[in-house]
Amino acid sequence: MNRTQREAAARQIMERTPPPVPPELYTEVVRRGGHLLRRRRITLRLMYLLLFAATVAFVVWALMAHPWVEPPSETTPPLTGW
Question: Which entry of 45, 56, 66, 67 is 20 to 30 Å from 28 by CA?
Fold first, then answer.
């Protein structure tokens, strides 16, 4: 199939009228869509809560451990008696 034939076939498909949707399908789709939206909202809230908890834990750890301070060197003994 060359390009012009593919374009003609695509135009024919797009010009067709869509098949009728059964009326009972609409209520099922709305119910499932609402369920998916609720699940997505709950998931996002849990993710933000987890991110907040991780941030608080990191800040508390950083304030307690002081990772920006260099630890004292313990490899050489102090020089005394010079």
Answer: 45
Dihedral in degrees, nearest 10, Cα atoms 74, 75, 78, 82: -170
**Cα gap 39→57, rounded to integer Å:** 27
What is the Cα 77 distance to its own chain's centre? 52
**pLDDT tens digit string along 7-50?**
999 999 999 988 888 888 988 999 999 999 999 999 999 999 99
- State phi, psi for 41 to the nearest 5 degrees: -65, -45
* DSSP per residue, 34-70: HHHHHHHHHHHHHHHHHHHHHHHHHHHHHHHH-TTSP
Nearest Cα residue to 56 out of 38, 31, 64: 64
One-letter amino acid identity for 82?
Answer: W
